[in-house]
Amino acid sequence: MATTTVNQNASLASIIERRRESILAEWLREMSGATRRSDLMKESELQGQCGQFLDLLARASGTGTNVQAAAYEPLREMLLDISRVRVQKGFTPRETAMFVFSIKRPLFTAIREAHGKDPVAMAEQMWSTTELLDSLGLYTTEAYLKSREEVIRRQQEDMLELSTPVVKLWEGILALPLIGTLDSARTQVVMESLLEAIVQTNSRVAIIDITGVPTVDTVVAQHLLKTVTAARLMGADCIISGVRPQIAQTIVHLGINLLDVTTKATLSDAFGLAMHRSGFSFIRSDKKEKRDN
Amino acid sequence: MAVVSSEATAVATESDIVTVRRLVREASAKLGFSLVDQTKVVTAASELARNTLIHGKGGEMELITLNGPRVGLRLKFHDHGPGIRDIQLALRDGFTTGSGLGLGLGGAKRLVNEFEINSQPGEGTTVTVTRWK
Ligand SMILES: Nc1ncnc2c1ncn2[C@@H]1O[C@H](COP(=O)(O)OP(=O)(O)OP(=O)(O)O)[C@@H](O)[C@H]1O
Ligand SMILES: [Mg+2]
Questions:
Q1: Directed axis angle between helix B104-111 and helix B35-54, to 10°?
Q2: Distance from CA of A213 to the nearest CA of B (A)
Q3: Proximal ligand: closest to the CA of B88
Q4: Domains and CATH numbers, chain B
């Protein structure tokens, strides 16, 4: 009976509960020494996070030290959130993980004081607490890396989107230089913006340049054909340029029928044709010829 | 036949298809494939990977480098999807059960030197292609 009471009083949960304020104060001090980034985050926000972490840790630790267990779900959720926000704010992975690791010293002080006369129990609890905090720290680092990958992926997508602008080459002539991978939802967006631009500028010829597209497979071809058909319905002719020899060969092997579509090897060939079709012609001025001679 | 290296990669998302193309391009370039042959095998891989993802509900690609007596690249696309009931029909140009052009499978076959489909309805599909240097 007596032992149970002692154990109860010395559980991590009860230690945290009884000494919450001093642990919290020491933890915040610890962080201001190591990795506190007051330039990136307000003091009050950090205090709130620390308090919440302690409460969630106290609640979950009663059930064991397996951080994958359901009892730790709220705590994991919170660390995931913290990591995500810190990625956005520009914290380093170290600064993010230190949020968890810097609680060690204040918590160990509290454990040592709680166990005063029982070194075996103290050592045991320190060990299990270390394991627990290490797992939580690693979890935080993983969550941080995942969030950062997500951010990078999104940035890459954004960049691809930016790299496909519709440009007006001449009165009534548009060009869409496509760059990169074409088979995602983005293709749809790019093609739609071309159709929109055709209407807006009242263009009669649109050149789709695929020089920057490494692979033309059936999905890419299907997008191209759909766009050509839609443009035609709006009164504009499409020319596909940048069809390199290796791409021409694969298109033939795939059995894609581009016979109804005008294709050109280079953008400048396509532009020449577009000018011709629109009734423009080039004349080299005498002056220029003289200077060249 | 000497297998120099073999590695598997997941085909579970749209971005995995991009990865497949990159891996196949790198491997074929390393083997010294001409630009035309690189483009052919990459395009075939793109078609088969997309079939694995869309029709096969995801799976994986095994990339095998063959060296001696002939140098080549062998790709195995494997899934546990619904399988193909009539392989001859699936290979026919223009046949599709989805919204594609129905050219992927037949096209991939024309882009490689060896082509084999193993498929059991309800079990899954394995498509193996080889392109020799
Ligand atoms: N891995 C697979 N698992 C199940 N069914 C498949 C698989 N691969 C192909 N098929 C079937 O074969 C048909 C033909 O495939 P194919 O790749 O030629 O055309 P598609 O994928 O429908 O269109 P696309 O021209 O865009 O490739 C598909 O519509 C599908 O029914
Ligand atoms: Mg297909």
A1: 150
A2: 12
A3: 1
A4: 2-132 (3.30.565.10)
Going from the C-alpha of A216 to that of each of A188, B2, B47, the distances in angstroms are 15, 32, 10
pLDDT band at A1, cuts 50/70/90?
very low
**Torsion angle (degrees, nearest 10) of CA B33, B37, B40, B46:** 0
Q: What residues of chain B lie within 8 A of the CB of A183, using their CB?
A: 14, 17, 46, 50
Q: Which residue minimizes the CA distance to atom 6 of ligand 1? A: B55
Q: Which of B50, B52, B57, B84 to mutate to test the pocket of ligand 1 (most atoms within 8 A of CB)?
A: B84
Cis peptide before B69 (omega within 30 of 0): yes
Q: How many CB pairs under 8 A join A and B?
A: 66
Does the predicted model carry a pTM greater than 0.80?
Answer: no
Q: What is the mean pLDDT of residues A40-56?
A: 88
Alpha carbon of B107 to those of A79, A182, A253, A278, B75: distances in Å?
49, 19, 6, 37, 15
What is the DSSP track for A161-182? HHT---EEEETTEEEEEEES--
Q: pLDDT tens digits for B27-75?
A: 999 999 999 999 999 999 999 999 999 999 999 999 999 987 899 999 9
What ipTM was assigned to the predicted interfaces of this complex? 0.85
E-assigned strand segments in chain B:
3-11, 59-66, 72-79, 114-120, 124-132
Structure tokens at A263: 């294709």
Residues with CB under 6 A from ligand 1: A 218-219; B 47, 51-52, 55-56, 79, 81-84, 90, 95-98, 100-106, 125
Our CA angle for A47, A75, A147, nearest 5°, is: 90
**Every domain of chain A and the residues it spans:** 2-156, 167-288
Distance CA A70, CA A76 (A): 10
The torsion angles phi and psi of A162, rounded to 5 degrees, stand at -65, -30
Rounded Cα gap, residues A237 and A229, in angstroms: 9
CA distance A278 to A41: 59
CATH class belonging to A2-156 = mainly alpha
Please say whether the beta carbons of A65 and A128 come within 8 A.
yes
CATH tag, A167-288: 3.30.750.24
Give me the mean pLDDT over the A206-224 stretch. 91
Maximum distance among all Cα pairs of chain B, rounded to whole angstroms: 42
